[in-house]
């Protein structure tokens, strides 16, 4: 008894669901290549065609369609009603992905072969490559934007959006390069006792070694400084530089004019150089508004002491000065900030800006004095601030001092940044990064000062600034609380494009050390999207990230790969599963864009089972032969399980196309199909093509001959049970039995005995196509011969040639159809799929028998009347119990029709029997032959 390879699988009926005609904005998939969609809701009618899934050890595997147990519900197939189906439609185009898809893959491939002990080095190489790549793309996008000379607003906005995205992505990889390699690294520096005369800078460096939180905060602050834009210094014309270099010019001019108008010349002449003009204590009227009084003392503390403002015309100077100064300090460029103060005639502010540097003496603090941020040298002597805490308190007092000057907001923000105060700085923050910087900077100052206090460098009396208490924030959630406070869904302070908002979420996950949570969100979205194609991630109010934002998916995928190289990602557990889901989603995205060449590279990062599952989906969509060969080579190069993957792909194809192979209980009239022209016959359908092209994969792997034989038999059954003769012909042409089983007996030694039996079944199924093709050739020549007879005597030579061709076609058709009637699938009626075989024989054998009967009749009419007798020979075969042909007629209720056909041919034979010769071969030229079977001589009694 053969194994249960051919018996049907029946599934409970489900509610039908067909492909959606419209998809959400980011879900631009073609119907054929929608790899992120599932089809576990499709209608599963009970069908005798069945889902014959072949498994290991030649045993059939019953896999429930869809649902949790199958694991194969990840592809959307085509409904027969979808007339707009295009086989080669690309679901995602190149522009949606960006050129970095290929370049990132090159870096991943370059560093994948590193041995385990160089894994961190591989991570560094990947980070450097991604950083360089995105920087190049950013500058290229900038160049395209600058060179564009058109006036299409949409194009301009797209270019600006592209430039902004690449800029922010480069900033993201910059953060990765600074922060991730530092995590998980234990510092082994010995903390020594710092003497009373040594700089606090030494203690600060010891705190960096001792506290991972403080170290990460400093890295984040430095990153935020690096990515901050340069201050926007006005330089529209020469007057701007002159105005900024002249200080409060209009106030000075107002004082000079007031002095000139109000001084007593005689008194000045009498007193000489000792004469002094006294301005009113209340101030002098402003030139622009006489009701407004301006200060009369121009020393740095004059406006504060007099509680007066400068002239209104100096508002531009004040606002610009403080705003640019804020920009330099926000960027951490304190030297340039000091230079800006000197340039703007406020040199006295330069020491204030530079006051945040701890004092360093070259002789005492040699180990830190060579830092580039210090000006210390043997010639210059000590540098920096030995009373930094007092300086902070002074800056804090200035930040809290209120005034009505135009530049007050920026002035307070400057002093707020210097002192580490949050409240006075936030009003000047223009974006998300500014807000994060303000709070991180405050935390750094607080933790540093608490550490100095612990070390006895700061007295309790000095600790009077209201700074955050870092001891209550824990060691890992400090930045997380900051990020969460800036990530509320109803917070509209940071309006930006969806992509930039999502990148902020990625950056927030990185700096708050919650990348696993981000990956988990992506994984959850991908699962939900595959479960429910109507799901729209961009409308999910819980998170700004969207799993169908392909560029974002690329970033998160490569972030996972870097963490894996760094040893910062678990190899098992929920986080590992989420990472697998995200990488699988990236692979599906690449497949939707037909980026098949780089898919195996990422598939190699999946577990063996997951790789088989995902690639089993992807390979069904590959049609180009050269691409198949390249993928097979890549599979071997990356050590992927080729055979298991191809078997899974075949299983998926059988499952996903199951719904299409339904048939009526009554047999199909095959002859009616063959009476149609080639153009009118039913063509190979998309589901047929999916099955055949998936099976073609196995032609590339010699070890899969047995699997291919089993799959081929299953496909033939499906095609024949549903009358898809052109599909069966395509299968026999593209995967002929000669490709699988050669005619040499010794070439079958590697096939098991059972597989050899199945191979013989494959050949028998294939033989039906040969017989039907022979019948088709006979029918075409018969039609041509009939037409030639109507042409008359002018085509005698052509008619003679056609008759010879018709004779050859008859012999071929008679031979092949005769074998089909006599023995086709007879030996298979004892196999486990006997019901299916019986149905196929009932469907085809009666039609083939009648077709052969009609061939004999036509041959008797056009070639030689002796061929009428072949019909009676055929009737003897039909009636023979061992042939089983009569059973097929009875089972399908067609015996009466066949008997009528026999009655008709019997009359023909009687009419042709007059003057019959003994044998047709003895007929002389010009003499009509007679059917010898009717040349009966009575026997004497």
Strand content: under 5%
Category from helices, strands and their pairing:
mainly alpha
Number of strands: 2
Q: N- to C-terminal separation?
A: 56 Å
The main pleated sheet reads as:
2 strands, antiparallel
SSE arrangement:
Layout: H1 67-70, H2 94-97, H3 100-110, H4 119-147, H5 153-179, H6 200-210, H7 212-227, H8 238-245, H9 249-262, H10 265-271, E1 284-285, E2 293-294, H11 302-306, H12 315-330, H13 334-343, H14 350-353, H15 366-369, H16 388-400, H17 408-419, H18 432-454, H19 478-485, H20 498-511, H21 515-531, H22 550-566, H23 574-592, H24 599-603, H25 608-618, H26 625-637, H27 642-657, H28 670-674, H29 686-696, H30 705-721, H31 725-734, H32 737-740, H33 753-789, H34 796-823, H35 834-862, H36 868-879, H37 885-891, H38 895-912
Antiparallel strand pairs: 1-2
